[in-house]
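Researcher: I'm comparing several assemblies side by side, and this is the next one on my list. It has 454 residues spread over four chains. Same procedure as the others: predict the full complex and return the structure.
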Amino acid sequence: MPRRTATDPRSPTRGTASLSRERLLSAAIDLADHDGIESISMRKLGQQLGFDPMSLYNHVRNKEDLLDAMADAVVGEIEPSLGDADWKMSMRDTVLSARQTLLRHPWAPSVIESRRAPGPATMRYFDGATGILRRGGFSVALVHHALHVLGSRILGFTQDLFDDATDRPDPEAAAKLADSLAAAYPNLAELARTASHEGGLGGCDDDLEFDFALDLILDGLERLKYG
Amino acid sequence: MPRRTATDPRSPTRGTASLSRERLLSAAIDLADHDGIESISMRKLGQQLGFDPMSLYNHVRNKEDLLDAMADAVVGEIEPSLGDADWKMSMRDTVLSARQTLLRHPWAPSVIESRRAPGPATMRYFDGATGILRRGGFSVALVHHALHVLGSRILGFTQDLFDDATDRPDPEAAAKLADSLAAAYPNLAELARTASHEGGLGGCDDDLEFDFALDLILDGLERLKYG
DNA sequence: ACCTGAACACCGTTCAAGT
DNA sequence: ACCTGAACACCGTTCAAGT
């Protein structure tokens, strides 16, 4: 690849002469948002930015370091809930706000889950969530349990086990397949049949399911608080 | 790599002349169990088995196909609970049995979560879980909700967000670090202080936390059943 | 201080050739 | 039918060399 200067029209994304960690980070997040996480490579990122891939190593220790920073940046985008409501409302608002943020970055859940240690924004987020519960009257021990029960849901996501969006270009073939599966998996067949009446299995409303689960858990925690 | 025959002493794992999907699968699971999932490559697997890496493609469509098979094989190892108890006990036993199985394959959670579609054993497992709830008196709609609330926990795992096992070779340095973190994250500091009295943060008992969360969810579902 | 390019040690996979 | 090896198109990263 030939040398390119800051004013070279072939490198539209090279805005200033020198790279920075911030610019690298936001370019990486943009690329992941648009093309998916599997398209994040040091080489492609370098190309995107108009720098030699090896230049990136001046601003980031290695790819893991970059992924750490990406994950933490996304958590840092979450808008904290205004803290004057009761703990349950605050927690609910916080988690749903996290969910809104994460939906803008579909790659983030798997990257967040694969991190070995939380970054500062993530620490701050958990500190905030812990504070909400403590101020709401939870014992330290119960807060600890609560964080484990909520798991990744506290950051607004659940890693869906598999796309139950059974893509059906051909409804007739799908029905045939469904019949044959029904014999092997009668209980799942019943589930699918009912769900599809309500607008398609997989058309199962993720937002609604998330809310349902969150409320069940928060209600359970509230009950334990008075247990 | 030189040609090796079935009797070549340099290829100890080559037991019979020809490869099979089963042998490939169990070799892959063994390798992942011992060396971790990141050490699973078509090339290493071929070497391990004493075959040219390209031979694997006669038994497996590609690496994703292999990972699909690995995930489904692990779910197939789960021993189903004997079904005569009440739904809550059956569900609890099933999930805890799943957990025991998954603990033998630490790589499995992330592989299972990254699958796009469930294999037959996984379908069977979910069909069984669905059956337990239906026979326990849950409506189809509530079963659907229940599966979403349980999420990956139904398969016996939760993807821990990060190792809260703060490795501390030097307790003095750790204490110093803790002090400085306490200023920035007071609520987490309180949590850590308390947990470490009970035998170390991260020394937080995962089994106990899993049980706690599972019971909270099952209790919540039971309550909704009568709601 | 930051950027560059060659080089190294890996990947997954296709394809033509062997047996 | 199954196995092989060369080849292709990728990776992340080190290191010496440039400016």
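Model: For your comparison table: Chain A has a mean pLDDT of 88.
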